Structure formats: C-alpha cells, structure tokens
Amino acid sequence: MELTFSKEQQNFRLEVREWLAANVPKQKLPTYDTKEGFELHRQWEKKLFDATLSMVMWPTKYGGRGCDLIDWLIFEEEYYGAGAPGRVNQNGQLLLGSTIMEFGTAEQKARFLPKMASSEDMWAQAWSEPNAGSDMANISSKAELHGDHYIINGQKTWSTRAIYADWAFGLFRSEAGSKRHHGLSFLLVPLDAEGVTIRPIKALDGEDAFAEIFFDNVKVPVENRIGDDGQGWHVAMATAGFERGLLLRSPARFQQPARRLVKLYRDNKAVADRDASIGAAVAKCWSDAEAYALSAYNTVGRVNNGEKIGAESSLNKIFWSELDLLIFQTAMDILGATGQLLRSAELAKEQAYWLDGFLFAQAGPIYAGTNEIQRNIVAERVLGLPKK
Amino acid sequence: MDFTFTEDQLLFREAIGRFLSTEASPENLRDIWSNEQAPIDNLLEQICAQGLSALSIPEANGGLGMGDIAWSLMTQELGYYAVVDQLADAAYVGAGLISALPNTVALKAEYLDKICEGKLRLAIGHECSPLVADAQLAGVLLMQHNNEVHIVSPDNVRITPNASIDTSRRLAQVDWQPSDKTCAASGEEGQIIWQETLNRGALSVAGQLLGLAQRMLDLSVEYSLQRKQFGKEIGSFQAVKHQLADVAGKIEIAKPVLYRAACSLENKHPLSDIHVSQARNFCNDAAALAARHSIQVHGAMGYTWEVDLQMYMKRSWALNNTWGDSTCHQARVQNYVLNTDVDLAPSKTFEVMS
Ligand SMILES: Cc1cc2nc3c(=O)[nH]c(=O)nc-3n(C[C@H](O)[C@H](O)[C@H](O)COP(=O)(O)OP(=O)(O)OC[C@H]3O[C@@H](n4cnc5c(N)ncnc54)[C@H](O)[C@@H]3O)c2cc1C
Fold first, then answer.
1. Average pLDDT in chain B
2. CA-closest candidate to residue B333, choices A28, A185, A280
3. Which pairing describes strands B170-175 and B158-163: parallel, antiparallel, or unpaired?
C-alpha cells in the first residue's frame, strides 16, 4: 500500500489543471436540457476532445490518451474541482462506450467511438419502456430481422436528453414470442431515421430533460447491432458493473459539492449553528464523499491487479445516491426560507446551484436501477440469499 | 498510488483467520465469557505459541516488525473471532507504546523481549477512559498522567474490577500515584507517545469493529437461510434482504477508510488523527448497524444468551466506546472539517499538507 502519486501522475494532474484554468468558461453554461445549452455543451465537449481530454482512458486511436483508471480519477478530481461544465454526452461516452469497447467489431469501434469522444454524435439511452422499468426484461419493443436490416416498432421512455441527441442505444425483442431476457438484441438507432418520433417529458425542474421515443417501422441496418442477434441482454449486462457504477458518478462529482457545502456552512455559520445537527451533517457529507474517493482508489487498485468487481458495484450506487441526497438536503437546511428560490428570483444568489442539485438528487435513487433493485442484487449476489 | 495489500499480507490474514477459527471458536469464547481468568490464559498461550505476540515488536528486538497496514487486516480477524483485548493491547498498541519510549528507559528492551515471548501481560491507562482493560491480569501498567508515560507495577496500585456487558473484558479502575521513579517519558516526548497510542488503540478497535460487523452479518445470513416462516427461508423476504444488504454496504465503505488510516499512521502522516477518527466513525457505524439489524433478523432468538450472536453484538457495543468514544471521534473530524481553514478540494484526498 502506497498512497502517494508518482511524478507522472502529478504532472498529468498539473497539465489538466492548467488546461482547465485556461479554458473552463467563466460564465456557467445554460442547462444542457435546453436546445441552446445542449449545443454550447457540445462545443465544450469538442474543445475537450481537441485537447484529448474528453475520454482520457480510451485508446489514442479512438481519441483518448490510453490513461489508466488512476489517471482518470485524477482527471475527474481536477475537472469537478475546476467547476467545469456537466458532461452532456456521458451516457454514451461512459456507458455505451465501455460496451462497444468490449463487444463491438473493429469497424463499429472505428465508426462510433471517435465521434462519441468528440460529441459530434450525441447518445441517448433507450432501455426503459412504459411496462419495463425496474423489470427491464419485460421489454416489448420489437426488431424484426429482414435480411440486412431490422424493422423496429414500439416505444421507449425516460430517455435522457433524447430530444436533442443524434443516436439512441437500447434493447429490442428480435425473436418473436421470446420471453424475459432471451431473444433481445442490442441496437444503435439514428434518431433522425424515418419513423422515429420523439416527445419530450418535462422533468421536475420544468425542463425537457428526458423523452419518449416512438418507433414506427424504423429501418436499422444489422451493422448497428452490438453482439449477436438475441444476445442483447448479455451484452447490456456484461460491461463490468464496476464501470457502470464508478464511471458514471466519479467521487469528485460528490467531493466538489461537499466542499461547497462546507463553505456554505462556514459562510452561514451563525444561522446554521442554531441546529447543532447541521454541522454534524456537513462534516458527514464531506467525510462520506472522501470515503467514496478512497473506495474508488481501492477498487481501481484491485481492478489493476486483475480482480473482477461484480455485484458490489450496486453498493456504490446506493452509497453515492444517498450521499447526494444528504449533501443537498443539508444545504437546504442551511439556506432555510431562501432555499426554494428559483434562479430568476430577486433574492437568489447561490441558491439555484443548491436547488438544481437538490432536485436532481431526488432522481439518484431511481435512475440507473432503483436502490431497491440494487439492494436485491446485493442480497442475492453478494450475500447469497434466495431469489424468491 | 497502490491501494492494495501484498500477497503476503493477504495470505497472512488468511492463516490467522484459520488459526483463530479453531482456537477462538464460539465454544471456546463461551468459556471465556462465563468463567474468570483461566480460559483466557489458555487462549493467550496458544496465541503466543504461534508467535503472534511478536508481530509488531521491532526486528532488532527479535520480533517481526509488522506495521499498522498489516495490522489493519489482523485486527479485523481479531474482531471476527472476538479475541480478548489482551492480544491487541499488548502485541500491537502496547508494543508500539513501549517501542516509542526513550532508549534511556531501563526496562524497555526487557519488556519488548517479554512481549515477544508472550510473557508480558500489560494494561494501558489512557485518559480517554476511566477504566483500564486487563488491569487485573497485567504484569505492568502503562499509565498516563498529564502528558507523561508512567510504568507502574501492579503491586503499587489499587485495582477495582468493574464488570462489562462484554464479560470477556476485564475492566478496572486503577488508583495509583505518579512519581519521578515511575515516569518513563514526559513533556513533548510523552505527548507524542500518547497521541500515537490513542490513534493506534482507536485504529485497533476500528479493525475489530469491522471484523465484528462482518461476523454478525455472516451469522445473520446463515440464520436467515435456515430459519423458515410462511413456508420459506426468512432470507427470501425482501425486508430481511434489504436490512442485510445495508449492513454489507456499511462494511464495504468502511474498509478503505480503515486502510487509509492505517497507512497514515504507519507513515506518520500529519493528518493521522483525523484519518483514524474517520476510520472509527465508519467502523463504529458498520458495527452498530450490524448489531441492530442482526438481532432483528434473528427474532427472539437474537435476544437470548444461547445464540452466539450475543457475544459479538455485546463486544461491538463495548468497543464502540473504547479508545475514544464515538462522540469524541466524530468531534475530531467535525472540528477539522468545519473549524479549520483547510482546502477541501477533491484533489487533496492524498495530498500531504505542508
Ligand atoms: C432522471 C432520470 C433519468 C433517466 N434516464 C433514463 C434513460 O436515459 N434511459 C432509460 O432507459 N431510462 C432512464 N430512466 C428510467 C429509469 O431507469 C427507471 O425509472 C428505473 O429503472 C425505474 O423504473 P420505473 O420508473 O418504471 O419504476 P418502477 O419499476 O415502476 O418502480 C417503482 C417503485 O417500485 C419499486 N420496485 C419495483 N420493482 C421492485 C422489486 N422487484 N423490488 C422492490 N422494489 C421494487 C422501485 O424500486 C420503485 O421504488 C431515467 C429515470 C430518471 C428518474
């Protein structure tokens, strides 16, 4: 055990830090859940890509730097520490990217990964359906194989940022009459194809953060299938849970608001200290965020030693989503009567940051597999308790 | 940057676990829990025969020179098997304290040799607690007076036993008189020694609590697979599953916090106090939730003397407030985060403050 960074790692950190100091927009970009904000975030992603900083752990031939996961953690610490813009294409880059890396053909990798890294292609996830939420194996959207293409029919929902995205990836039932996780195929669908209709859904904050996608005889070439026909479930699940858990929400994503929370407390100490439990909660938020960071370095060390990280990544997801709630709830407790104020309100200063975070934190225990489902997974696969 | 253990360290842990699973089986523990001194002697003799008391004695004094990092694995095993206080207190915390004494202390080398051979029982009286563990058994007492370290013979003290809910613990009040003759370190030297001893004691307890939490979880999983109600194993009920999954979560997140603290202590990191207290907070939490959910999953069985769970549960309650109570460790972290002027940026996790 050796908990210090090498010279190379320190240099990499400094390089990232300097680049961000020179390039992060001084003015916060408008939310990527608006058309204008989305495009501004796309431009930002391009800038990151041009500096080979958009996907540092991807191979150089796909636009990355071939860094290891420690470097990636370092990058994330600098990125969030600098208050840089949210990653608009992360569901593609972090979730689909890993899947293509593992299951894609050489052609698919060359075709999709570089444009994903540069965000020329923006990606939306399309797993959920009206009757397939937690029970994802209940997917009923169909993909009928006709020679060199599939014809897709059905409906997806809750697809984040689908309204502005270029592509969607998801599972479709390609074997007629198949049940549950059998007979599904993993397909990549261009959202400008004929027969695709996208209807925005307003999220809690009133923005069109996600959407329903309707497929009406949409033609998708077989080259857009990842993995074999009927193997979609396996492909969707196999990308190490660790990547889904850790990559999507790196520790720095929570350390930064925890750090701001400490500042909020210090700036409002007289008010906050009227309730002694607030100081305790602030310290716990910071300490929990640091624990998550320690856990990430520990996990990465084990991965680098060849260990497989399986269902325990479900514990990760529960931990960070609950931490996020605690951070923003505690901020609300400190802000008191002004916590509710929208950005447009006269008295609002820093409030909007906390309110946005508070709202989005409510979704953490729901998306990426609800925390109840994660607890089931832990009980069954880590502890070995019976399925039924 | 490498947050993992060496193969040797992991193998060592496994070997210790195997050894303790027979020597400190629940049946043997029960003996210790229900009788007075004799069974403790048996267990300690077995342990010393394995050379375990020599683990952290410096190599120059014939020991193995094992550091805090490796001990963070060892203490989890001690906790898992609820091994009595004396082993960790003498071989780890006490050995560290004695090693840190100035070389001018006449008895230092002799004590280290004796611990190495398993022939010295000792007790440490730190001001964080009004009670001293194993004072009744000790051949020597290491006592704090202000910042001074005093070496006191049991002949010159009055020992009043106080029974603990963990009946394997031998707690006592110790009345004694400091004098120039008993003083082995004073001033700044003594202060540093006690600071490090408190940290090592707290870290030792953190590891043991984590081991206890894991044991309680394992016992509960086992019970929930065997006990049937409504025609099914109770472990198939979601309310039971989720309680146990939450315990697993607390244990997982506590591990890296414990290991970082061990690494800091071993390398004399300037933030050792904070890192150790963070470790204690996470390990305390894990053990507390493990106890609460385990007794719930056991139903009325969990409220009996008969079921083994009781020993691990009671020990966790007792240790939760040993080597600094839970409030004091929370306060140390809270004070650091809220009342100092440190930069808490994400990049600072491993950065040594200058
Ligand atoms: C902000 C946000 C973004 C999202 N983005 C996307 C996206 O980009 N693409 C996409 O495909 N989906 C997305 N989702 C959808 C998300 O994956 C689903 O909401 C989630 O899987 C839960 O499904 P559901 O909403 O249908 O809830 P349901 O499955 O109906 O669950 C409702 C409640 O019942 C509980 N429950 C259900 N089954 C069980 C069980 N077996 N045991 C215990 N409790 C159970 C759940 O835990 C939950 O509390 C997003 C959701 C949110 C909130």
1. 94
2. A280
3. antiparallel
Amino acid A137 reads: A
Please tell me whether residue B159 adopts helix, strand or coil conformation.
strand
Highest mean pLDDT among A156-160, A351-355, B50-54: A156-160
Considering only CA atoms, which of B24, B181, B44, B59 is closest in space to residue B120? B44
CATH number of A123-231: 2.40.110.10
**Residue ranges of domains in chain A:** 7-88, 123-231, 245-382
- The amino acid occupying position A337 is A
Task: Give the distance (Å) from ligand 1 centre to CA of residue A362.
Answer: 12
- Residue A380's CB is within 10 A of a number of other CB atoms, namely 18
> Taking Cα atoms as reference points, which of B173, B205, B202 lies closest to residue B319?
B205
- Residues B144-156: pLDDT tens digits? 999 999 999 999 9
Comparing CA positions, the residue from A96, A116, A124 lying closest to residue A45 is A116
For residue B131, the SS3 value is: coil
Pick the CATH number of A245-382 from 1.20.140.10, 1.10.10.10, 2.40.170.20, 2.70.50.60: 1.20.140.10
Residue A330 contacts B where some CB pair is shorter than 8 Å:
no
Task: Identify the band that residue B352 occupies on the pLDDT scale cut at 50, 70 and 90.
Answer: low
Q: Is A74 left (phi over 0), alpha (psi -120 to 50) or beta?
A: alpha
How far, in Å, CA of B237 to CA of A243, rounded? Answer: 30
Q: Give the DSSP H/E element, type plus range, for residue A375.
A: helix A371-377
Residue B255 has pLDDT above 90, yes or no: yes
Widest Cα–Cα separation across chain A: 71
| Interchain CB contact of B354 with A (< 8 Å) | no
Q: Within 13 Å, how many C-alpha atoms sit on residue A284's CB side? A: 21
Strand order in the sheet with B132-133: B132-133, B170-175, B158-163
With CA atoms as reference, the chain B residue closest to A252 would be B346
Third-level CATH fold of B189-342: Butyryl-CoA Dehydrogenase, subunit A; domain 3 (1.20.140)
Confidence of residue A240 (pLDDT cuts 50, 70, 90): low
Question: Residue B308 corresponds to which amino acid?
Answer: D
Torsion of CA B73, B75, B79, B81, to 10 degrees: 80
Helix axes A252-267, B326-339, angle to 10 degrees: 80
Give the dihedral sign, CA A330/A335/A336/A338: negative
What spacing in Å lies between the alpha carbon of A318 and ligand 1's midpoint?
A: 14
Q: Is B263 on the interface with A (CB under 8 A)?
A: yes
Tell me the C-alpha distance between B136 and B170, whole Å. 7
Q: How many CB atoms are closer than 10 A to CB B328?
A: 15
3-state SS, residue A2: strand
Contact A283 B330 (CB under 8 A): yes
**Predicted pLDDT at A343:** 86
pLDDT of residue B354: 40
SS3 A168: strand
Burial B255-294 (b: 16+ CB within 10 A, else e): bbbbbbbbbbbbbebebbbbbbbbbbbbbbbbbbbbbebb
| pLDDT value for A312 | 81
Q: For residue A28, give the amino acid letter.
A: K
Q: Which residue has the tokens 């492909």?
A: A235
Average pLDDT over residues A361-383: 96
Asked whether the beta carbons of A383 and B245 are under 8 A apart, the reply is yes
pLDDT in tens, A5-39: 999 999 999 999 999 999 999 999 999 999 999 99
CA distance A131 to A134: 9
Which of 284-303 (A) contact B at CB < 8 A?
Answer: 286-288, 290-295, 297-298, 300-302
- Min mean pLDDT across B47-61, B185-199, B227-241 is at B47-61
pLDDT tens digits for range B32-72: 898 765 667 788 888 888 888 889 888 888 888 999 999 99
